[in-house]
Amino acid sequence: MQVYCDNEALVKNVNKAREQSRPQFPNDALKASWDVLQAVVRLAKLLPQITFHHIKGHQDTQVALDKLSRPAKLNVQADKLAGSYQRLSSHKNIQAPMIDGTKCHLISDGQTVASKHRKHIRDHRRTKELKTYIKQKTGMSEAAFADIDWQSHERSVKTFKDGPHIFLVKFLHGWLPVGKLVSRYNPVKYPSACPSCDEPVEDSKHFLTCPNPERRKWHAALKTSLRHRCESVDTDPALLDLLLWGLNHWLQGTTIPAHRVPERIAHLLHSQTTIGWDNFLLGRWSRHWTTLQLQYLQRNHIEVKKKNHGLSWSSNIIRLMWDHCYKEWKTRNSARHGKDAEDKAQRRLETAHRSIRDLYDLKPRCSIQAQRHYFYPTVEDHFRRDTDARSLENWLETYQPMIMQNIRHRRDNSDRRLRQIDDVFHLIRTVPPSNPAPTVAPRQRTPTLTTRPITTYFRPHRITSPTPTLETPTTTARTSSTSNNPTTTAPHPP
Ligand SMILES: [Zn+2]
């Protein structure tokens, strides 16, 4: 008797295992489909007249069925039977019976795990934390969260190829570097405003709903693509309409008129609205979408194929939406950073000019020394001397932290009512005098400042009015104090 199977690895494993005489080890139970494998091997050892062979599957896609060999025809027939059973959603929630000799099963959430046990356990543990995070972040209720078709979402993530994975992860969790987010790092360098309209704060939603006419073009492109894709995979027209309405109303900021939705899918509208149509765009679909699609196919006697129902159908549409979102992200980035090399260089220059002008606005809050060390006389002088973006960015990288530190230092001293040395002494010489512009790194100049005597640069004021540090209540007291303390230098010694 000859047995054929299109799983070549299984045939090899069975033929190898039937030759082995060693007892079963505990780790053998971690092999994929161990329960079936051990049963086949055990029976094969009892029936040596049975031989196992590999047959290539799906040969009917290349050769007419009547021209195939008998094993190939039987394989095609077996595939159809297996496919019919697989399409029945009811069996998915049934725990598999334990076959004799299996000895142990991994059961998770009432489902038998037949392969990739370690990965399943790791995923199960991480998924729990991830779901808790998503619930907290989106504010979704427990019931709405449980209503999401996570299998479709998972399939879409795993099969998304139209953009980088890092984009998808940030997009799904609201971490795309939009203006609102990046302005927290450096509000001068990264403005929070939308690059395409007057919106002062660009957040994740505004990135998708920006009213700029050029930016809104993707809405129409998305709807057209969705309509074509859905029609090509036998989508229920009522589901297609709801899908387009839902997206359109979310993008427009309005609500779907419930009376326009057929009664038979009203529960879907309620479920998806509870989950949120923003989450719909993120691939968090209600479970009712795939259920209603399968019911539509069966009701209208449309052949159930791989692409027109279940996870393939839903993930196909979800990936299409994400593909359009990624294109829109690239459009938004062009608006922010420029379209071509020349445009990008111009944007860089504008950003550097803006940052430097903001720092020059802070110049009066710096000490006189810092003003002379770090700044040109005017910002226009600065731009005349440094004309390219790279030089300006280098200046910013070098001096911005020191300028901000200087301002903080002066502010702290002011809070403690400590006067600056500039307030007491005139600066009579700049460092270095021949170089008012900050072209030498301060790390090289600092030793010069600290090693030379301070009188190289400063001359005491001819103070006419008393200052807090030199203030004395009366002339008598000052005379008394100076006479008792010979180290104090009095302006007019007795
Ligand atoms: Zn905008």
UniProtKB/TrEMBL annotation:
Residues 464-494 have a biased composition (Low complexity). Residues 459-494 are annotated as: Disordered. This is Uncharacterized protein. It comes from Nitzschia inconspicua.
